[in-house]
Design brief:
378 residues, four-stranded antiparallel sheet, disordered N terminus, single chain, 1 helix, mainly beta, Neuraminidase
């Protein structure tokens, strides 16, 4: 059985949120309502069909993707859901469908939404990254930035973020083919890096390639720390769910190395191939999903800790780092088996926390999934 390893750095996605677009007449909710309900947790909405991405938008609404192809805005004070787009090309098979989403950081001047979804026939799925323009309460003008990425019924990655230097970071899964992760001619099992227009940055580690790092199985959490570190949470097979510090050009070992190098087979592979070990891992697996770094006073038990939503073990995990940010000194588990599988977590600019649930099983595709606000820990 594997041992837990160390974790380096804090994590924080630091995007500057702007005001709501002038061409949308929907009133802004209050990002910090002040005196309101005193319940520790409350359900905002419970009629969603498998939410995947949940993010606080620059208009002070929650934006959510559902795997069936719907993008909507949700008033964080009332739970009112406003549909903005149904993507008909989305192919939802098992765990595929409409997945990651991120706003342009200067949304007022560039009202763009970037999303990832799978498309094609059930046995020949592909994945694409597209951009939409937002106006008059709807999304339109789809522009494909990158397509024909190998995809599958499972293992599609698809988490998105935009870095402070305005690069898109996108995780991809191995699409169920473990041989693709070590193949630098394939975009599967990778972390990709793109310019906002979909072109390849000149300083990517492999010439004329979107690949930023490789040797990944299925990273579904990405977050950026302002010190310049990029971190991922990643699903293992039956051992070694991982936290990785993603560095340019590095090989993270899958499928030859799982977690840290501590078996004869892994050591033999590492003799001829330089591998970055995970900086924290779990065996048995827990099924990690979204990953953030929380900096607010609203929930003091979580301040300055990594927070990760967990699917199989149905919990939120908080990781406390040492002063240097080089290892984990404490792991804490919250809300275990309280809300079911936890897919995603979103934080407002004032520290409000919302989570998206995914039922009790990955096969649950009923319209009963929820967004829940967490105000305190009792």
């Amino acid at each position: 059985m594997k041992r837990k390893s160390k974790i380096l750095g804090f994590t924080l996605l630091s995007l500057i949120l702007c005001s709501q677009c002038n061409n949308d007449d929907t009133p802004n909710p209050n990002p910090n309502p002040g005196d309101g309900p005193i319940e520790a947790t409350s359900t905002l909405i419970n009629t969603l069909s498998i939410p995947w991405e949940l993010t606080w938008g620059p208009d002070n609404f929650l934006w959510v993707t559902e795997r069936n192809g719907k993008i909507s805005r949700i008033n964080p004070d009332t739970g009112e859901q406003i549909d903005v787009l149904q993507i008909n090309e989305v192919a939802q098979v098992q765990e595929s469908g409409l997945l990651g989403m991120v706003h342009h950081p200067d949304f007022e001047l560039n009202p763009y939404i970037y999303v990832v979804y799978t498309y094609g026939e059930p046995n020949e799925l592909k994945e694409k990254l597209v951009r939409y323009s937002y106006g008059n309460g709807t999304l339109s003008n789809e522009i494909t930035l990158l397509d024909n990425i190998p995809a599958g019924r499972t293992h599609n990655g698809s988490r998105l973020l935009i870095t402070p230097d305005l690069k898109i970071i996108m995780s991809t899964g191995d699409a169920g083919d473990i041989n693709l992760s070590q193949n630098i001619n394939s975009l599967a099992g990778k972390v990709l890096r793109l310019n906002l227009d979909g072109s390849i940055p000149n300083d990517n580690p492999i010439s004329n390639s979107y690949i930023y790092s490789y040797g990944h199985r299925n990273a579904q959490g990405l977050t950026w720390h302002p010190n310049g570190n990029l971190y991922s949470s990643e699903h293992g097979p039956n051992t070694d769910d991982e936290i990785n510090r993603i560095e340019m050009g590095k090989n993270y070992g899958w499928p030859e190395v799982k977690g840290i190098i501590d078996t004869d087979e892994e050591q033999a592979f590492a003799l001829n191939t330089k591998v970055e070990e995970s900086i924290f891992n779990w065996t048995p697996t827990i099924a990690p999903s979204d990953l953030i770094f929380y900096t607010y006073d609203n929930i003091p038990q979580w301040k300055n800790k990594l927070l990760m939503t967990v699917l199989k073990e149905q919990q939120i995990i908080a990781l406390t780092l040492n002063d240097e940010g080089t290892n984990v000194v404490k792991e804490e588990k919250f809300f275990t088996k309280t809300f079911g599988r936890l897919r995603d977590i979103a934080v407002s600019p004032t520290g409000r926390i919302f989570i998206a649930t995914n039922g009790d099983s990955y096969t649950d595709n009923t319209n009963t999934h929820s967004i829940i606000e967490i105000r305190s820990i009792e």
